DNA sequence: AGAGTAACCGAACGATCGGTCGGGACAAGG
DNA sequence: CCTTGTCCCGACCGATCGTTCGGTTACTCT
């Protein structure tokens, strides 16, 4: 009795269509005409549901950011030895990134042309900083290598994780979130070289 | 007697300005008006040097692709044990990426809206494939871990390397190409964990 | 000095941009 | 029945898009 009035668009369902087109064509490369064709309604009808193009972008990146910041509030990310918390966050980042793939994809591609985009970039930097502090704490414990700058390592690991949006596609038979998260964690913490070879 | 006629724009000098603006605003987010302001000449004057906006994009990604494919022709990338050739290619990729930073940055951001962009994506896939084969050969020799899929590892390592364009800025006092290349190679091959700890 | 030309400009082109407007179709509630 | 409000539409807005055009500088060469 609460929902189910008609089978038309809501701001949320319209958003999922819009985000998909944004990711295919790029935000700037997507016109409202493109969106209307993809949604199957007229251009002006879109404005019945949302205020405009930029609101769609804001809703999308907000959803992605909520998912990422949510990780830091989880218990395993807050308590325990920093290196363990770090590994947990890395795994969860992969899982959230895959669970909210189109939204995180869009977030990772904003350039900063509008106020919304600049706000998204700022929040992204804040998240990166929080994880960097975790890595720094793990380094202080002597649990991760210190011969490479913490700042640099953070960026490289983030780069590896974020690059997942460039190729992961949830087409049925593919690997699931857990498998990818395991691979990323193993590669990031253990390295490319055959396990047991040490460094020689 | 060959060069040095006037101190005006050439297609190359104009390209360097254009690529910088493309990277700041995104290709689709950049208008010819933006380019003319950045270059300090009128919009119509740009067309005296190049055929149009898309030619600037084509020249830029061509330069990036030439740099990357050039690596595969170098001797250290062609002869020797695959794992050694792989590490050489990884290091050189970082160096080329930094040496041609704005051009590679643009290459890594094309989405496929035009023929030029689709051609760039195709050539990128070709390069990725060539490196993936090298990794596969190293795995066959038992020199790199085989518990993670070769295809996945390739993508993650590429992701780590390519992410450099998102943060590296050549502002004088920063790290140089060699330092970054060393860090990437060490992290990719040795992993995050403190050297000597093994996997425990 | 005069010819030739590379470099540049303002004005304008048709097309498309994001967004607005008045109104029509249709279901729910009386 | 008629009203109310949701959902949607075609037509249109001023602005901006990439590009073209005719014409004016300003430099080089003879």
Automatic annotation (TrEMBL), chains A, B:
DNA-binding region: 31-50
InterPro entries: Homeodomain-like_sf (IPR009057), HTH-type_TetR-like_transc_reg (IPR050109), HTH_TetR (IPR001647), KstR2_TetR_C (IPR041490), Tet_transcr_reg_TetR-rel_C_sf (IPR036271)
Keyword Transcription: yes
Pfam family, one: TetR_N
Domain HTH tetR-type positions: 8-68
Keywords, comma-separated and alphabetical: DNA-binding, Transcription, Transcription regulation
PANTHER family for this protein: HTH-TYPE TRANSCRIPTIONAL REGULATOR BETI (PTHR30055:SF234), HTH-TYPE TRANSCRIPTIONAL REGULATOR RUTR (PTHR30055)
Protein name: TetR family transcriptional regulator
Species name: Streptomyces griseorubens
Lineage: Bacteria, Bacillati, Actinomycetota, Actinomycetes, Kitasatosporales
């Amino acid at each position: 009795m609460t929902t189910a009035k008609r089978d038309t668009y809501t701001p949320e369902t319209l958003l999922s269509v819009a985000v998909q087109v944004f990711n295919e064509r790029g935000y700037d490369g997507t016109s409202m005409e493109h969106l209307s064709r993809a949604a199957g309604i007229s251009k002006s009808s879109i404005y019945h549901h949302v205020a405009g193009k930029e609101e769609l972008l804001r809703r999308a990146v907000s959803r992605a950011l909520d998912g990422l910041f949510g990780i830091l509030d989880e218990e395993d990310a807050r308590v325990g030895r920093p290196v363990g918390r770090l590994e947990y966050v890395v795994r969860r980042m992969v899982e959230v990134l895959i669970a909210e793939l189109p939204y995180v994809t869009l977030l990772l591609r904003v350039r900063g042309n509008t106020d919304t985009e600049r706000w998204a970039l700022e929040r992204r930097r804040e998240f990166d900083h929080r994880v960097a502090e975790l890595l720094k704490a793990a380094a202080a414990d002597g649990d991760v290598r210190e011969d490479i700058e913490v700042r640099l390592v953070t960026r490289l690991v983030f780069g590896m994780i974020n690059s997942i949006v460039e190729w992961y596609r949830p087409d049925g038979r593919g690997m699931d979130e857990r498998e990818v998260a395991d691979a990323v964690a193993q590669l990031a913490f253990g390295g490319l070289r055959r396990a047991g070879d040490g460094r020689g």
